[in-house]
């Protein structure tokens, strides 16, 4: 899909199934409802990621990983304070939009949440 658009219904179903299958929480903790999935893209962040993955090189892959760098799709809990409509907001408290703008910064993770 094009950046700033919702993914196709087929992609939504694929990602939803993968999320539901991978969901691990304690007893009695319900799975979150997936309401929307958006296609987002930053050429700058993509190039940074490709340089980093390339520096790791080809390694043994696990699960659905791919080389270079045993790249994996991961899901994580993140706060969103805006009503996302395809472009990231600039609110510092909106962690989803911060990730879209800056990438995923491990320094921002606390107790498993961004």
Nearest-integer average pLDDT: 83
Unreliable sequence segments? none
* N-to-C CA distance: 26 Å
Number of DSSP strand runs: 2
Give the % helix: 25-40%
- Looking across the biggest beta sheet, what order are the strands in? 1-2
Can you count the helices?
A: 3
Give the H and E element order: EHEHH
**Helix-and-strand structural type:** mainly alpha
Task: Please give the radius of gyration in angstroms.
Answer: 15 Å
What does the largest sheet look like? 2 strands, antiparallel
β-sheet strand percentage: under 5%
Written overview of the protein:
A two-stranded antiparallel sheet has the order 1-2. The mean pLDDT is 83. The protein is built from three helices and two strands. The chain is 32% helix and 4% strand. The protein has helices at residues 9-22, 43-56, 95-102, and strands at residues 5-6, 38-39. By secondary structure, it is mainly alpha-helical. The two termini are 26 Å apart.
